C-alpha cells in the first residue's frame, strides 16, 4: 500500500501556522497583563515619591491583587504600612509572605527581617525578639544581633546583652569592650542594691580589666572601696583612673580631692590635678584644686589662674563670690544673678542628641547612646 504524502505536505504548514498563532496570542496576552500590572505599580511609585502614602498604598494594593505572586510588591506595601504606623497591616503582609510555599531563600529571610522590624516599631519586644532570633545564620544576622542588643538594653537584661555583644565582637562587627564594661557596671549596681558587695566588687574589677580606658569602672570601684572604709585603696583606684582614663578625670576630681584630704596625700594629688589643668583647664579640676587649697586666698588664686588660661563665667562667679563689692548691699543680688546666669553652663550635654542634664550620664536618657556625654560641662564644649 503506497503512503499518501499529500496529507503530510498539507499538515506541516498547518501545524506550523497553528503554533505560530498560539504563540502570538500568548505573547499578546502577556503584553496586556504586563502593561496593566506595571501601570498600577508605577502609579504607586509616583505617589510615593510625592510623599502621598495613602494613594501609594491604594495603588500597590491594586498591583498586588492583580499579581499576588509578586514578592517585591508585598515588601513595598509592608514597608509603607510600617512607615505610616499601620503595624497590624504590615505584620499581616509579611506573615502572608512567610506563609507562602513559593517564597524561599533570601526573600524568606527578608520577610522574616521585615516582620521583626514591624514588631520592633510596634513595641512588641517579646515577639520581635523571637523573630530576630530566627535570623541567625542569614545575611540579616548582624542587623538582627544589633536589634537584639537594643532590646536587651531597653529591658535591662544585662547577661543577655553581654552574650549578644560578645557574638557581635566575634563576628567582627566592631569592638564592644567598652559596652561590655558598662554592662558589668550595671550588674554591679544591681548587686550593690541587693547587698552583694563581693559580687559587685568582682564585676567592677572585671570592668576595669575589660576596658581600662573607661572611667566609670574605676569610679564605681573607688566608691565601693570608700564605702567599705578603705580610703587609701579608693584613692589608689582613682590614681589609676588618672593614668588609664585621663579624659574622665574631671568627673572624678572632686572625689579625688576628698580622698587626698582624708589620707594626707594632698601634695601628690595637687600635682596630678595641676598637670591635667596645664594640658587644658577643666572646671571640675579647678574646683578640686580650690578644695585642696590651704586658704581661701589660694582658692581664689586657682579661679583666677583658670580665668587667665580660659574665659569662664562659672569661674568668674566663683572668684567674685569672695570678692567684696564697694556697695555691700549689692553683693547678694549681684551674686544671685551671676549664679543664675552660670547655672545652665554647668550642665552636661549629650553629643548625640543634645539632651542636657545637671548630672553626668553614661547612657543618655534621651537617645540611649553610650558614652555620649563628655566629661566636661556645657561651657567648656
TrEMBL record:
<keyword id="KW-0802">TPR repeat</keyword>
<keyword id="KW-0812">Transmembrane</keyword>
<comment type="function">
    <text>Modulates cellular lipopolysaccharide (LPS) levels by regulating LpxC, which is involved in lipid A biosynthesis. May act by modulating the proteolytic activity of FtsH towards LpxC. May also coordinate assembly of proteins involved in LPS synthesis at the plasma membrane.</text>
</comment>
<feature type="binding site">
    <location>
        <position position="350"/>
    </location>
    <ligand>
        <name>Fe cation</name>
    </ligand>
</feature>
<feature type="domain" description="LapB rubredoxin metal binding">
    <location>
        <begin position="348"/>
        <end position="372"/>
    </location>
</feature>
<keyword id="KW-0479">Metal-binding</keyword>
<keyword id="KW-0677">Repeat</keyword>
<feature type="binding site">
    <location>
        <position position="364"/>
    </location>
    <ligand>
        <name>Fe cation</name>
    </ligand>
</feature>
<dbReference type="Pfam" id="PF18073">
    <property type="entry name" value="Zn_ribbon_LapB"/>
</dbReference>
<feature type="binding site">
    <location>
        <position position="367"/>
    </location>
    <ligand>
        <name>Fe cation</name>
    </ligand>
</feature>
<keyword id="KW-0997">Cell inner membrane</keyword>
<keyword id="KW-1003">Cell membrane</keyword>
<protein>
    <recommendedName>
        <fullName>Lipopolysaccharide assembly protein B</fullName>
    </recommendedName>
</protein>
<dbReference type="InterPro" id="IPR041166">
    <property type="entry name" value="Rubredoxin_2"/>
</dbReference>
<comment type="similarity">
    <text>Belongs to the LapB family.</text>
</comment>
<feature type="binding site">
    <location>
        <position position="353"/>
    </location>
    <ligand>
        <name>Fe cation</name>
    </ligand>
</feature>
<dbReference type="InterPro" id="IPR011990">
    <property type="entry name" value="TPR-like_helical_dom_sf"/>
</dbReference>
<keyword id="KW-0408">Iron</keyword>
<dbReference type="InterPro" id="IPR030865">
    <property type="entry name" value="LapB"/>
</dbReference>
<feature type="topological domain" description="Cytoplasmic">
    <location>
        <begin position="24"/>
        <end position="381"/>
    </location>
</feature>
<feature type="coiled-coil region">
    <location>
        <begin position="190"/>
        <end position="217"/>
    </location>
</feature>
<dbReference type="InterPro" id="IPR019734">
    <property type="entry name" value="TPR_rpt"/>
</dbReference>
<dbReference type="Pfam" id="PF13176">
    <property type="entry name" value="TPR_7"/>
</dbReference>
<keyword id="KW-1133">Transmembrane helix</keyword>
<keyword id="KW-0175">Coiled coil</keyword>
<keyword id="KW-0472">Membrane</keyword>
